[in-house]
Each structure stands twice: as structure tokens, then as C-alpha cells.
């Protein structure tokens, strides 16, 4: 009987502990989060939704579409969406410089497999080949202007002829017709370049070859939203970290799920997702953001108001750090080694 009583007491204690843990589980301040992830989507969101990671932390997402990066930023600044993850890095930085109070707290694409192309047979010797040539590229792409500055050109906008063509297909056609020497292409152009136009153009390099870990797309929200919903943000980051750990070991699954999500052919998604230059990472990349801010300021892509702003006030790395600590403790057994790499990466880049 004594033995039975001891077992009963231990069982009751275990039940109480489990109950207490369940009661102590953090709840998000906001359970429905409006999100814009662009036409190409966010594969970490796709995975987190598919595997129920957001459900587990009590968060539902409402996808809010936008037709362009600028429109996504307008949705964010006017409060029509809560989070934007696919509008690049220069766009949110330009908004911050203009006085819009945004906070960057995470990331999506660290590098986006964005190729620089030229006509078939063109030889490539590095960034110096762009100097003095016609380049179909918006010079607000700081990785490229920064690379030209690294060559010793204090005024990179004058070092070559930057031809702004807003549509990537039009820029591709301009290369084929010989109207420009080189063109930057978007992530989604990889399939077309490698299959449809492989006899006309070649990939010279990728933007991440020119500036590693340059920061393709940051994740941002209005600062007020971040301050009012820190648990929500942290739980989102935990779900995305868990999704990232899954992604790194299951890219074939991720490509199939993401193709279905954005209603594209699987081969279209695999053309960029299986490329080593396509790297997704939920880390906020503080150092890369500060570097981008400096380049954009030097090249005149930030308003004069930027001189009054400390960009460090608009990047929150604490919530990501907290999410990483908790995710490693709770989910570390799911992906041995991933969280150690994520921690080392965070320390090196923030």
C-alpha cells in the first residue's frame, strides 16, 4: 500500500508539473497577423504553416497581397499589414530614412540567387567589367554600388551607365538585343535564363558573389507593433527558426510545398531554391543592415532626414536572440547542429 501511495504521489506531482508548464506557456498578444510576402512568397512561412508550427504557438496568418515592393511598404506604413518580409532591404531603409517608424527584427532571403547576365560568349573578370558599360540595374541595389566603391570609385553612379528597367524580362530582352551590356535579374528569372534563353545569355555571377550575405530581404513591422507585441514577434521567429532547420535538411519537400503555395511549377521553384546562391535565414543581420544603410546614404538613396537617424534604433536583435535561445532548448533535438550554427551565425552577424 505504501508503494502504491508513493507512486500515486509521484504521478500527481508529474501531472501538476505538466499542468503548470501548460499554464505557463506564453500566449501571443495578437493571434491573427496580417503578412505580405510578395508574389514569390516566403518558403519559411510555407513550411511553418504546412507543418503546423504557427498553430503550435497560437498564431494564424492572413496573407495580404501587394503588386510591388513599394506597394507592400505602403501597406505597412498605413497599417494595412502587420509584417512585410519580401520587400528587400533598401525599401524599408528608405522608408525609415523618410521618417516612417519601422523596426527590422528578422529576415527572409539573406541572398536571393539574383544573377547578373550578359550575351552568350561574354567573358567575366569581376565587377571591374561593369565599369564604363551599360548595366540594366537600379543603382539602389547597394551590394553592387558598394562593390564599385570598393574598386576605388567614390561616385559609383558615375563609374558606369546604370540603365533602370523596372521589368526583369525587359532587361533580359535588352541584353539579347545588345542595348545594354549587362543586366541584373530577379530570383524568379533563374528558370527562364537557364532554360528558355540559355542560347542567348549567360550568367556572369550572382549578386552574392560580389557581396556575400548582403541582405536580400529583411522582415519588418511598424515599431509600435513590435513594442506592443513582443511575444507575438518572438513566437513567430521561433516558428521560422524551426522552419529553417527543416528547410536545410528537406529542400525537395520545401520546393514542392512552396510551388503549390505560390501556384508555380515545381521546376520553376527548384531553379532558384536548389542554387547555392539562394539562402534563407530568419536572422536580422544587423551588420549587413548597417552596411546597407551606409552605402545607400553615400550614394544618395536616403533622404536628408537620415542624418538625424541612428539606424541601430530601428533594428531589434533581442527578440530574435530570445527566440533562438528558446527554440534551441525546445526543438534542438529535431535538428542536431542547426541551432549551434545559428548561434554562431548570430554572433558573427549581429
Task: Name a few traits of the molecule.
single chain; 350 residues; alpha/beta; D-Maltodextrin-Binding Protein, domain 2; 2 domains; five-stranded mixed beta sheet; three-stranded parallel beta sheet; 12 strands; 49% helix; globular; disordered N terminus
Question: What would your notes on this structure say?
Answer:
There is one protein chain. With 350 residues, the protein is α/β, with parallel strands linked by helices. The chain has 17 helices and twelve strands. It folds into two domains: 218 residues, Periplasmic binding protein-like II (D-Maltodextrin-Binding Protein, domain 2); 96 residues, 3-Layer(aba) Sandwich (D-Maltodextrin-Binding Protein, domain 2), CATH 3.40.190. Helix 13 crosses helix 14. The strands form four sheets. A five-stranded mixed β-sheet has the order 8-7-9-6-10. A three-stranded parallel β-sheet has the order 2-1-3, with helices on one face. A two-stranded antiparallel sheet has the order 4-11. It is globular.
Amino acid at each position: 500500500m505504501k508503494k502504491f501511495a508513493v507512486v500515486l504521489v509521484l504521478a500527481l506531482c508529474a501531472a501538476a508539473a505538466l499542468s503548470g508548464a501548460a499554464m505557463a506557456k506564453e500566449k501571443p498578444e495578437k493571434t491573427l497577423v496580417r503578412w505580405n510576402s510578395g508574389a514569390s512568397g516566403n518558403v519559411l512561412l510555407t513550411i511553418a504553416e504546412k507543418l503546423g508550427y504557427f498553430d503550435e504557438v497560437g498564431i494564424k496568418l492572413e496573407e495580404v497581397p501587394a503588386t510591388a515592393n513599394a506597394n507592400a511598404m505602403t501597406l505597412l506604413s498605413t497599417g494595412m499589414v502587420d509584417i512585410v518580409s519580401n520587400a528587400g532591404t533598401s525599401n524599408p531603409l528608405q522608408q525609415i530614412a523618410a521618417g516612417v517608424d519601422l523596426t527590422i527584427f528578422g529576415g527572409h532571403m539573406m541572398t536571393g540567387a539574383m544573377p547578373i547576365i550578359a550575351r552568350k560568349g561574354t567573358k567575366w573578370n569581376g565587377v571591374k567589367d561593369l565599369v564604363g558599360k551599360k548595366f540594366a540595374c537600379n543603382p539602389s541595389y547597394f551590394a553592387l554600388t558598394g562593390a564599385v566603391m570598393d574598386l576605388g570609385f567614390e561616385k559609383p553612379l558615375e563609374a558606369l551607365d546604370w540603365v533602370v528597367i523596372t521589368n526583369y524580362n525587359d532587361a533580359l530582352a535588352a541584353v539579347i538585343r545588345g542595348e545594354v551590356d549587362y543586366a541584373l535579374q530577379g530570383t524568379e528569372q533563374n528558370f527562364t535564363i537557364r532554360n528558355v534563353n540559355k542560347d542567348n545569355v549567360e550568367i556572369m555571377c550572382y549578386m552574392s558573389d560580389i557581396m556575400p550575405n548582403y541582405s536580400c530581404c529583411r522582415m519588418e513591422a511598424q515599431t509600435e507593433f513590435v513594442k506592443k507585441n513582443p511575444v507575438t514577434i518572438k513566437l513567430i521567429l521561433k516558428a521560422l527558426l524551426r522552419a529553417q532547420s527543416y528547410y536545410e535538411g528537406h529542400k525537395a519537400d520545401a520546393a514542392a510545398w512552396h510551388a503549390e503555395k505560390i501556384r508555380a511549377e515545381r521546376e520553376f521553384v527548384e531553379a532558384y531554391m536548389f542554387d547555392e546562391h539562394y539562402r534563407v535565414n530568419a536572422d536580422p543581420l544587423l551588420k549587413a543592415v548597417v552596411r546597407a544603410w551606409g552605402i545607400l546614404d553615400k550614394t544618395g538613396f536616403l533622404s536628408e532626414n537620415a542624418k538625424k537617424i541612428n539606424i541601430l534604433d530601428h533594428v531589434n536583435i533581442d527578440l530574435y536572440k530570445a527566440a533562438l535561445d528558446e527554440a534551441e532548448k525546445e526543438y534542438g533535438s529535431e535538428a542536431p547542429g542547426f541551432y549551434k550554427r545559428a548561434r554562431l551565425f548570430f554572433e558573427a552577424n549581429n
